[in-house]
Write a sequence for this structure.
């Protein structure tokens, strides 16, 4: 069987390793940090930094294909790896989603709607952007943001200097504040031969910038459901993508707006573990290994609830629910804001 190389050993790498193992494939994890969650289940773990060219070469030599569980992999490491083994999803998809400006420019280019946005590096840029876009608005660093980090809300023009200071000199993008009725996401996959399979859109609720729950089915119309899936398919095809992607959307009276894309398995797709025959992790491994894809059909109504930090103390109680699957990531320290696990609760069908 083939060996899949995974850059990153967090919970996503762990669940990808479990899926690969079920398919009789091996995984080899590359991760700078000690004792990553994926180490419990992967076939091999290489502990080395992304500047260690010897380790990167040895890692590439030990695998058949390379994938990743996070976006922020240094370019030089990718250049080296790409010369040795295929990287799936491809470099272009990764580069576009690493930077909010290239991401939004790409989405607009292929005819998709985003919040109005403007590039901001100076106070003068921000003034001009606020004049054009108006308040309320959100200033976001272009790179490295996740779980709502690196963002500042501007309720009125007077908030602008403080918001710019929060960017700490990093390039930023100003986005008009979207008055959405709901947030949804589509998890979709594209195979090596170009076939696309999408899961049913999930409805997402965030708390303090971190995903709290994803519920399927989302409370949207069937027209919105097909729009969402078509948007995801358009993105995957435009990128000649191979693997699973998460597409976050805002539902508004004027239609669906794309918030951001993630070129990997996605927290809002964890419900597929109990809702579908082939979950997002198996789907991603199938895609990068060149297998046929599962069809994405959903067989249950599911609520996914993240266990963040001290929430993990609820596990003994949750374990008494007979219709709830528990997924823990093997992390020991329950730090505030840290994703410790999640549950998938099968909902009674209405
Ligand atoms: P993730 O962990 O999903 O990668 P992130 O840090 O990249 O998060 P975003 O997804 O850009 O951040 O924003 C986090 C949340 O903030 C969104 O899910 C949404 O609830 C809210 N938000 C972001 N941008 C806007 C906007 N332009 N208008 C309204 N709400 C927004
Ligand atoms: Mg993001
Ligand atoms: Mg997001």
């Amino acid at each position: 069987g083939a060996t899949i190389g995974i850059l990153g050993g967090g919970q996503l790498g762990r669940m990808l390793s479990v899926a690969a193992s079920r398919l009789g494939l091996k995984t080899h994890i590359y991760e700078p940090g000690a004792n990553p969650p994926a180490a419990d289940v992967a076939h091999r773990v290489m502990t080395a930094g992304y500047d260690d060219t010897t380790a990167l070469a040895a890692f590439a030599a030990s695998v058949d294909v390379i994938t990743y569980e996070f976006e922020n992999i240094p370019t030089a490491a990718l250049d080296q790896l790409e010369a040795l083994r295929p990287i799936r999803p491809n470099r272009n998809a990764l580069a576009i989603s690493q930077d909010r400006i290239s991401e939004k420019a790409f989405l607009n280019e292929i005819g998709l709607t985003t919040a109005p946005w403007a590039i901001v590096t100076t106070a003068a840029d921000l003034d001009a952007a606020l004049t054009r876009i108006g308040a309320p608005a959100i200033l976001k660093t272009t790179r490295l943001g996740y779980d709502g980090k690196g963002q500042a809300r501007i309720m009125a023009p007077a908030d602008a200097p403080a918001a710019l200071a929060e960017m700490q000199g990093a390039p930023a993008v100003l986005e008009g504040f979207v008055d959405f009725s709901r947030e949804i996401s589509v998890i979709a996959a594209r195979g090596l031969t170009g076939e696309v399979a999408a899961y049913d859109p999930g409805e997402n609720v965030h708390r303090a910038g971190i995903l709290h729950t994803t519920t399927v089915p989302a409370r949207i119309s069937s027209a919105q459901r097909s729009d969402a899936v078509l948007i995801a398919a358009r993105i995957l095809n435009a990128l000649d993508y191979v693997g699973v992607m998460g597409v976050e959307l805002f539902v508004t009276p004027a239609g669906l707006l794309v918030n951001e894309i993630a070129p990997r398995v996605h927290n809002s797709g964890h419900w597929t573990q109990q809702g579908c025959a082939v979950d997002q992790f198996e789907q991603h491994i199938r895609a990068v290994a060149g297998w046929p894809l599962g069809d994405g059909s959903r067989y249950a109504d599911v609520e996914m609830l993240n266990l963040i930090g001290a929430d993990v103390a609820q596990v003994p109680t949750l374990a008494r629910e007979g219709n709830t699957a528990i997924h823990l990531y093997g992390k020991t320290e329950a730090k505030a804001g840290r994703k410790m696990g999640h549950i998938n609760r099968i909902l009674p069908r209405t």
Observations:
- Residues 115, 138, 145-149, 175, 177-178, 183, 206, 209, 248, 259-260 surround adenosine-5'-triphosphate (ligand 1) (CB under 6 Å).
- The chain is about 30% helix and 30% strand.
- Residues 222-238 form the longest helix (17 residues).
- The chain has a mean pLDDT of 96.
